[in-house]
Amino acid sequence: MRLTLLYGGLFFLAGSVLLWFTHLLTARALNQRFVVAVASKVTGVGAPGAVMGTTLPDSDTLAQRVRTNVEQGAADVLSDVLRSSVVVMVLVGAVAVVVGYLVADRALRPLDRVTETAQRLSESTLHERIALRGPQDEVKRLADTFDAMLDRLHRVFDAQRRFIANASHELRTPLAINRTVLEVSLEEPAASEDLKALARALLGTNARYERLIEGLLMLAQSEQEVTARKPVDLRQVVRTAMEQIDLQPRRRKVIVHEDLCPVVAHGDPLFLERCVFNLLENAIKYNVRDGEVWVRLREDEAGVSVTVENTGPPVPPYEVDDLFEPFRRLGGDRVRSARGAGLGLSIVRAIAVAHGGGVEALARPEGGLVVTVRLPK
Q: Would you list the DSSP string of 319-376?
């Protein structure tokens, strides 16, 4: 439609300029030829052969009258020509706009196919292609380039899925074997206390690596678009996550306040449960002694939201966005892993984005964070 309006506007602009020049040239031709010719003939009024007995005005008066009549006739002719030209230009312009719309619609139809295919694309529909047929013009080359790009994306996603599956097996299996060996050595009666202390330390290290690998795999999986969606009761998700969380980490009791409205979201239940679990776990781990956590569920016209607010150490506002980056912790700590691998909020953001939503965090003036996950209905 925009191309049609542009084409029609240019047509009427060019037609108006042409009509103005035609009117100007026609007026000049009429004034220079007809009036001068009549005036030349009128000056011979007293010549031999003139009709006698007829009283005529003098030549100047007659010439002026003739000139006036001719000028009036020329003006009438110009007015009629202008009026007819405007009508013809409007009619031809309307036809040109209709023809331009049909031509533009036919020419841009392949681009509509490209747009529709791009809008339908997701991880599960990367096999679709435009497969445009026709002459090898600019639109055909664009469609072929788009299909080639989809081929490359399809191969990349397949490689990523294979990598996640292989990494899940190749990385977890050795750690599981190490854990089994260490647990058996702890149960060995002949083991010395030094050996048992070393085994317990290695078990802790092994457990941290298991959490790290699990977090990385979850982050990789959650960054993929969710295709199988179903209604999920977020109140039940919050309660299930609460049952799995230790409310007394490091002997620091934390009180959780719940304000759970009936809220239903559409998505993957396991991913949404992991998202809420990470929010609660992060709010409890990074808290103060006898701290508090508030969990709220809300629904409005824009969608549903899960808000987790906690007391805790003060968070500089300029560091809030960095907390969603992998392996980032408060204060720029990227080494100490006693509280986790630094992937909790990264996974939360990846899951929210995969569901078509988003996440935002605000630092509380008295310490702690307010993290809100928004999901579409």
A: GTGGGGSTT--GGG--S--SS--S-HHHHHHHHHHHTT-EEEEEE-TTSSEEEEEEE-
Q: What b/e sequence results for 265-279 when a residue is b if at least 16 CB atoms lie within 10 Å of its CB, and e otherwise?
A: bbbbbebbbbbbbbb
Q: What strands, in cross-sheet order, belong to the sheet with 291-299?
A: 254-260, 291-299, 304-310, 369-375, 358-363
Q: Rounded CA gap, 322 and 301, in Å?
A: 30
Q: Which neighbouring-strand residues pair with 266?
A: 231
Is the CA virtual torsion 138, 140, 142, 144 positive or negative?
negative
CA separation for the pair 4, 8 (Å, rounded): 6
* pLDDT tens digits for range 53-77: 556 566 677 667 777 777 777 777 7
CA 199 to chain CA centroid, nearest Å: 52
CB 348 within 8 A of CB 375: no
Evaluated on CA atoms 31, 34, 37, 42, the torsion sign reads: negative
**Integer Cα distance of 139 and 305 in angstroms:** 43
342/335 Cα distance (integer angstroms): 10
| Pairwise CA distance, residues 119 & 127, whole Å | 14
pLDDT digits (tens, 9 = 90+) for 359-369: 999 999 999 99
Residue 286 DSSP one-character state: T
CA 261, CA 141: separation in Å to the nearest integer?
Answer: 53
Spatial separation of the C-alpha atoms in residues 293 and 309, rounded to whole Å: 6
Residue 5 near residue 72 (C-beta atoms within 8 A): no
Q: Which residue has the tokens 């990846």?
A: 350
Q: Of all helices (H) and strands (E), which one includes residue 120?
A: helix 59-120
What does the alpha-carbon distance between residue 100 and residue 108 come to, in Å, rounded to a whole number?
Answer: 12
How many CA atoms, within 13 angstroms, populate the side-chain half-sphere of residue 250?
10
- Which tokens is 3 given? 């191309």
Give the three-class secondary structure for 29: helix
- The Cβ of residue 42 has, within 10 Å, a number of other Cβ atoms equal to 19
pLDDT for res 31: 67
**Short-list 132, 213, 106, CA closest to 169:** 213
